[in-house]
Write a structure and sequence with these properties.
Pyruvate-ferredoxin Oxidoreductase, domain 3, alpha/beta, 195 residues, six-stranded mixed sheet
Length: 195
Amino acid sequence: MGIINVLFSGVGGQGILLASKILAKCAFVSGYMVKESELHGMAQRGGSVTSHVRFGEEVFSPLIPKGKADFLIALEELEGLRYAYYLKPYGKVILNQKRVIPSSLNPAVAPYPEDVKSQLEAMGFHVDTVNAFEIANTLGNPKLENIIVMGILSRYLPFTISTWETVIEGSVPVKTIGINLTAFKKGREITEVKV
């Protein structure tokens, strides 16, 4: 196996860093060399946040070269478009259908992009979409979007379900373990239907 490159993008408060740490830990306990790097924008104000996770037999740099990402995990639609240039040709996007309108955006000058999925597909990428916020709300906790998306991602990576579950259990507060595992399973179920 070569290097697998996964780029996470979203806005502050969406759990990007937790999701990337879960992935990095899954790769590490599965015996891969792992490198991770995070970039915080104005995260506390809903600004852009990205995290790079790279794993494989030998990984020397934590940053994914442009045009080399295998997966783009976009927890917000505009952030998915913003970082699509990191994807390799025919790369995979897991797109959370959520819009967080930047406070600096003037709709009269630059409206929020319409039909982000179609735009990404027109660039040649395979796109899985999910409304993780809606699913998280049905579970009673809107903060579970990132774990739902991780459930989708898990279908494409070489880690066992028990590895994912053990790492999630060790990464979230004890009182939320059950609901996080349920959210992870919901994400996997979505992908089982689509694949």
